[in-house]
Please model this.
Amino acid sequence: MTPGRGPQFVLGLALWALLLGSVVMAVTFGPADIAPTEVWQTIAHHLGLPFETPVTRLRDAIIWELRLPRVLVAAGIGAGLALCGAIMQALTRNPLADPYLLGLSSGASFGAVAFLLAGAALLMPIGAFFGAGAAMALTLLVTRLLGGATPSRAILAGIAVSALAAAATSFLIFWSATGDSYREILSWLMGSLSGASWGDAGIVLSAVLLLGVPMLLAGRALDAFAFGDAAAATLGIDVAKLRWALLGATALLTGALVAVGGAIGFVGLIIPHVVRLGTGTRHRLLLPVAMLVGACFMVWTDTAARSLFSPRELPVGIITALLGAPIFLLVLLRYRRVT
Amino acid sequence: MSTGIQFDAVRVCAGQSTLLDGVSCRAQAGRLTGLIGPNGAGKSTLMRAALGLVPLADGRISFDGQDLPGMPRRARAQMCAFVEQSGSAEVHLGAREVVALGRIPFQSVWQSVPSPDDDAAVDTALAAVGMSGFAERHYHTLSGGEQQRLQVARALAQQPRLLILDEPTNHLDVHAQLSILGLLRRLARSGATVLLALHDLNLAAAFCDDLVVLHHGRLVAGGAPEAVLTPALLRDVYAVGASLLRHPGTGRPMIAYDVSPE
Model:
């Protein structure tokens, strides 16, 4: 039985509480010891709420300027990647689809690196938008040249485009990067949130809100794709329009996320799969739950990335891959058993 | 009062080839109409054209006087349902969720849970195909016949006045074939227009009120089974020799194919 309005409300409330708690707890992790109450007080103070603030200016700066923006960026990236992955899996009817598989992330990385090396670091998100969009257009074009949109053809095209974009990125770096920027770019390419600012948080959170809400509303229409395009069309869905709108939104969102956090893999792949085991495949439930779970997941993996080997910092992409690959294998094996 | 679906001089082209060439026929409300013809005759194309899935090069398809392919998709989905040839089994949905897909045309984007009307329509549809006890099962764990019955239930959940089905008995055992066709005939008797493509001519003869015969994209015959199914038509269209018998109970035509003894 699909859960009704009441249980869904409770689930949503619980997940929001979990996310809020995760954000506050994650901020307490780090070289300087900070208590959860200090985090609450600092946030309340900056939001203009009438609380005394006994937090010193140094600790206030650590919480508000260093740690909170980074934790919020992590939450936004996790939510956005999980949403993009779930939507692409539904649209392509392929459990392996995610922004990485269809070449969007590699394209976004290429666009971002190109703008960075051209000396326009501030315009990196725009470069990533264009890169993701171009990669998606190329993937769709190659898919069409292969003879029409089937899941396997889209994936093959995505792999080819991904390889091309990765090679072009490597070439750019080889050609123009010097020692320091080389190391910085490599760390960013692997996915790293170090040095995330309020500006980054603004980019990620506004992209997730502005693009994510309309994408969530498409949930019911996405259900109609379970038995393919023709079935969706006879259920009253404008298949071509919806597909273009959602793929476009996915490219934009992926671009914004990659520009800030680099190519963080596996989140878009595993979160929807894990969530689906609990919620089923109804997208009006799956999409928002996947976003909240993805946000919590990224908050904690990024916290692990910066604290496990402190003071050295691991690119968070390595952790998501380490966690993600085995979980993904388990999901694959489970699907193999039941089919 | 519904009058049914009317095809007028329908022409469909794909590139250089003509898939349907001036097909005029109709399926009346309250009757079960079978679409027959060999592979590649244009049966699927005719049904897909009615649903707006392939464009018409010429002609008109109307339902109760309204242009069917040209209707807004959502309005069409609220009165016309389609069951494709055996849908993919690789779908990880519950049986009830599959049937609930039929309610999508009636739901707004803001609606996050099914309305009481939706739930009632899904329950009724599950009961109509005898699958109420399977509601909590996973679609991919069900047999081909059970999956097909769920597809029909999904179509019924759309509460359609026009039901179009492409080979609904494919890959089913005899019992499942008879039960699906019996269900469709009851549905037609309740006033719906039911148009279905069939390969098995004996099933078509036993259940359909009217038959429409396509061959190479053209209409070659139409009418009651006993008028349409003749040895000459079977030879010309299907390239088989056959004798026509009568069912001892119902009097309906039965086909005995000529098979040379070894």
Remarks:
- The mean pLDDT of chain A is 86.
- DSSP finds 14 helices and no strands in chain A.
- Chain A touches chain B through 33 residues (CB under 8 Å).
- The radius of gyration of chain A is 20 Å.
